[in-house]
């Protein structure tokens, strides 16, 4: 049960097999593709909190990420796609981007990486039901992004 103040997320799972791009398309067939316009900024939150490769299940699979980026580019032209992560207790996101191959992938696919821990922070007002009145938020996340996607 959810209250009126809670948002409900839609989750879908599909069997991947050998065709990852087809599996990504099927996911969006089930949950609905994001509505994008030419030139929008899309932020994709990765899961890179450990120095472990994707095959351990601990971090984002770069093959799925690449298929996701290719799918998004079928929805609109000239997207500004930003791959984001924050520093973890055990590692800096900048090093994880590099060591896990996401910096090379970003360069090859012409997308950006951003360590949110280093992004300029801005103050944002919070809804009245929240205990805090204002909070700091990375500038990119708050001001520039059209669509947020979380990829584990």
Gross morphology is: globular
What percentage of the residues does DSSP assign to strands (E)? 15-25%
Q: Would you report the number of β strands?
A: 6
Structural class label: alpha/beta
Oligomer: single chain
Task: Please tell me the overall pLDDT.
Answer: 83
The helix/strand order is HEHEHHEEEHE
Into which percent range does the helicity of residues fall? 25-40%
Q: Could you list some keywords that capture this structure?
A:
152 residues, four-stranded parallel beta sheet, disordered N terminus, two-stranded antiparallel sheet, alpha/beta, globular
General description of the model:
With 152 residues, the chain is α/β, with parallel strands linked by helices. It has one domain. 29% of the residues lie in helices and 19% in strands. It has helices spanning 20-31, 62-72, 93-99, 102-109, 139-144, and strands at 41-45, 80-85, 112-115, 121-125, 134-138, 147-150. Strands 3-2-1-6 form a 4-stranded parallel β-sheet, with helices on one face. It has a two-stranded antiparallel ribbon with strand order 4-5. Helix 1 crosses helix 2 (62-72). Mean pLDDT is 83; it is low at 1-5.
């Amino acid at each position: 049960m959810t209250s009126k103040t809670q948002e409900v997320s839609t989750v879908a799972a599909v069997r991947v097999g050998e065709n990852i791009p087809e599996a990504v398309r099927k996911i969006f067939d089930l949950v609905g593709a994001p509505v994008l316009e030419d030139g929008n900024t899309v932020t994709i939150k990765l899961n890179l909190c450990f120095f472990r490769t994707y095959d351990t299940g601990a971090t984002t699979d770069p093959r799925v990420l690449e298929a996701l980026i290719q799918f998004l580019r079928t929805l609109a032209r000239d997207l500004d796609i930003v791959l984001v992560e924050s520093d973890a207790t055990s590692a800096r996101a900048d090093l994880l981007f590099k060591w896990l191959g996401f910096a090379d992938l970003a360069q090859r696919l012409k997308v950006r990486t951003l360590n949110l821990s280093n992004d300029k922070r801005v103050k944002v007002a919070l809804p009245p039901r929240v205990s805090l009145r204002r909070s700091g938020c990375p500038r990119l996340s708050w001001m520039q992004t059209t669509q947020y996607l979380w990829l584990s």
